[in-house]
Structures are given as structure tokens and as C-alpha cells.
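During the reporting period, we have paired protein sequences with C-alpha cells. One record among many follows, to show the layout:
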Amino acid sequence: MYPGGWNNLTPEMLPLAVQAAMAAIEKICPEARNLLLIPENHTRNTFYLSNVAQLARIFNMAGLNVRIGSINPEIKENTLIDLPNGDSVMLEPVIRNKTRLGLKNFDPCTILLNNDLSAGIPGILEDLHEQYLLPPLHAGWCVRRKSTHFANYEEVTKRFGKLIGIDPWLINPMFSQCGEVNFAEGEGMECLTTNVDALLTKIRRKYKEFGIHEKPFVIVKADNGTYGMGIMTVRDVKDLEVLNRKTRNKMSVVKDGQEVNQVIIQEGVQTNERINDAVAEPVVYMMDRYVVGGFYRVHAERGIDENLNAPGASFVPLAFEQSAHTPQPGMKPGASAPNRFYMYGVIARLAMLAGSYELEATDPDAEVYE
């Protein structure tokens, strides 16, 4: 919901993103002229700021005046930051008056958040009743939980699986959640051990049913937060008994120093894609309800059962010229090359649908009908 890699999309993919941006704006604010983009506060990460520049470019090409407003208290005046690719971004301090947010001589109709609010919701963003704020504040990681998302995704995949006649497990990794864990103090580990053991048993059962001869594993991750922090692979329940201090420290804190006390335990799925012999996983980007592009996250030093979202990862564009073909109905299976991008796009759209259910269910301002 706060994608940070728009700069990894190829120029060929940009027209799709621009069209999707136009469709989204048309829907929420047809008369929109000005868009305020609010980025993360870490202004020294030039790779992240390249993503912000690309996002601004997409909405600019969609016909909007786009400016970048920082809520970082350190940004007190207009600050120009040069980027490695020769691009630059201008960060301007935001100005709040009564119920509107803007910049000096700039009054936006829509505010696009590219700040995931891990550290909490700043007061400056609250009670904006006259402007569209996308995504809404309750999509921030101070509120959101991965387990809630995957519970919604599970429902969506069950219905989709029934519709096309497949076992939803094929597109939905099993998961469970653990409420009170303190890695730093080693507390609540019984809950974690029990859940890991139960999930590994369930996976073994499924592997047997489908004739899969791999060793099952689970991924334990913080139930909130992003940036690939607070994640570990568990292949055997005994591994949890001997967690070293380094692993405990890594698991106890996520982005913006937020403590981890809730974890989600997910069935691990082996990464079988390769780019130049390095393990690679697809990342699909969407805007509104449209798939607009994607890329591979590649990590030469990580294995098929490890998290690739870690320092040392690189990004490789998807082969877009081959991936625009949609599957043809009635064709004999195997007659055309498998379209992985289309398949990943289907999963992405199901996840987007689950995300919308999730936000609807967690909306603090939703009207409750008796």
C-alpha cells in the first residue's frame, strides 16, 4: 500500500501506470489539478527518493501538478536533493491550516501518502475532512496487521478456488498468529513453538497429499511493519530453542524502532525462479485495480527458503515484451509459453481485493448498520 520501488519499473511500463493513475484520479476527484505527495522522512536514502521522483512523474504525466511535501520536522525550507541517476527531488515543508494540508501557494485536492506511518499517525495528517487522503490513515503500519490481511486473502482465495476448481492452498500459504512474544526477554516462546509445530505438521500433510518431496519450513515475521525487517526462517521447531542473541535482537525491533510483540507464522514457499543463478522472486506493482508492471527482486547470497528483501538485493525488470500476451481460451495446454507475469498479476489482484476488504473492515469511521 506504500510501494517504494517505482524506480524499478522500466520506461516501457510507464504508460500503463499513467493510464491507471488517470483512471484512479477520475474516480475519486474528477476536477483534480493539484496532487501533494508525502514521502517517508528518511531523506538520505536516495534509492527511495528515486522511487518518489518516479511516482511524481507518473502523476505529472497523468495531467496533474505534483509537488512533494515533507512532514519531517527537519525540513524547514525547500530542499533540493540530487539523485544518483541524474534526477532530483524538491522536498517542501507542509503547511496545515484548519482542515486542509498544502504547501506555500499550493492547495491540493488529493494527498497521496508514500509514508507507511510505522512510527504512528502524525497529528498534522489527522482530521482532513475536505481533501482525499490515499491510502487512508488506518492503512498505516501503526494500525495494520499482516494477519488481518492474510485472513481476508484466505477468504478471497477460497471463493476464487471454488470458482475455477482448484485447491485454494495452491495460491494461499497457510498461517497462524502469535499475540504476546518478547524476543529480547525470551518471553511468550511457548506460543511461538506450539504454532510453528502445528503449522509444520499441516504443511507436511499437504505435501503428502500433493506428492511434494521438499522439507517444509515456515517464516516468522513481525505482524506489523515493512522493509523486510523482523523476519526469520524456521525449518525445525528445535531451532527456536537455540535462538542466539543476534537473531533475538533482529526479531525484536522493526522500522522506526517499533517493538515486535505480535508475530505471524507463515508457510514458507520455495523460491524457484532464477536470474543468472541467483534466487529471484517476482514483485508486481498495481495502481487502483490495474496491474501496471513488475520486476524481480534478486539476492545472490540468499537461499530458496530465505527472505530476499534484505541488504544486498538487486532488482531486474520482468521481460515485458513477452509478458503482455494474455492466455488464449481454448488453446491446448502447453501450446504457448507459460505467462508467469499474467499469473503473478492474478495473485496481485486477489491480494488487492483482500486489501480493500481489510481496509473496509478496519475503517474507524465506517458506519455500522444494525
Summary: The helical segments are 14-28, 46-61, 146-164, 189-210, 245-252, 320-323, 340-362. The longest strand covers residues 278-287.
